[in-house]
Amino acid sequence: MNLNLLEECRGAKRIGITGHVRPDGDCLGACLGLWQYLANCLPGTEIKVFLEKPADIFKDIKGFGEIDSEFPEEPAFDVFFVLDTSTDRLGGAEKYFRAAGKTINIDHHVSNPGGGQINLIRPEVGSTCELIYDLLDLARLDKDMAQALYVGIIHDTGVFQYSNTTPDTLKKGAELISYGFDFPKLILETFYQKTYVQAQVMGRALMESIRFLGGSCIVSAIDKKTMEFYNVGPKDLDGIVNQLRNIEGVDCAIFLYETATLEYKVSMRSSEKVNVAEVAAYFGGGGHARAAGCNMTGTFHDCVNNLSLHIEKALKKWEAEHDERNHNS
Ligand code: 5GP
Ligand code: MN
Prior knowledge:
By secondary structure, the chain is of the alpha/beta class.
C-alpha cells in the first residue's frame, strides 16, 4: 500500500481523526489505533479524535477517554483523517473535514466514492482496522494499539466468521494477539455479552419477527414506545439483526428501529443471495454486500414493502443465475 501515514503528516501541527455517526467497533478501533500510532510517532503534535459517544463496552481501549463527542469550534486541522466511512456520514465532525488543509479518507465500504483529497478505499478488505494495520510501521506497534485494531477486526468479521474474513485477516489476528492482551475477555465483553435488558429487547424482537418471501426474508422492528419502556437506546439494539439472519432458511434479515415519528433506521444482513448494499443504496444508504443500512420514512409497513420489492428482485435474479449455472453444468 503506497500511502505513507507519517510522510503525509510531516510538518503538521494539528491532526484530527473521525469516523462515522453511531461509531461501531471497527470505526472506533481504527480511530483509536491510528490516534495511538500518530501520538507515539509524532510527539509534540496535537492529535484529536472526534466521534459521537461510543458504547461503554469499548471503554478499555486506550484513548477512549480522549474522544471528543462535543464537536467544539476548532482552528482548522492541517491533516484530517476520515476512517471507516464516506465523507457524508460525519455528523458533527463534518465542519473539521471541510476546513482541513489535507483530508485523507481510509475505508472499506463499497459504497464509498472517496471524498478525501487522498483516498484509500478497499472494499475487498473486511475491516478498516486491517487497512490501518497495513499502513503502520509494525516496529511501532504496541499492546494497546494491537488491542484497538483487534477490536475492529473482530467486530466487522463477526469474530472471524463472516465471508469477509480472509487468510490475511487471520494472519493479522494471530500477529495482534501475540502482543498479549486479554482477547477472550475483549471478545466476550465487546461482541457477545448483553445486559439483561438488551437480551430482553432482543428476545422481544425475535418473538415479534415476521418471515416473508417464502421464509427467505425476516423482519422485525422496535418502536420508540418499546425503547422508552425498556429504557434502551440504539446502542442497545446491536446484534439483533445478526441474530435474525442466523435463523435457518433466512437469507436476508431486516431490523428497523424508530428514530422519530414515521422515521426508521434500517439494518440489513444477508448470507448469500441479496446484495444489501445495493438495496440500501437505493434508499440513500450504503454499506457492504452482506451488511448495510439506510434511513427510511413512512410506516413500518411502507418501509418493509419498499425494501421487499428490491429484495425480491435480487432474490429472483440470484435464483435465475443459479438455475442457469445448474443448467449449464
Ligand atoms: P449496521 O446495520 O450495523 O448499522 O450497519 C451495517 C453496515 O452498513 C456498516 O458498515 C455501516 O457503516 C453501514 N451503514 C449503516 N447505515 C448506513 C447508512 O445510513 N448509510 C451508509 N452509507 N452506510 C450505512
Ligand atoms: Mn468497518
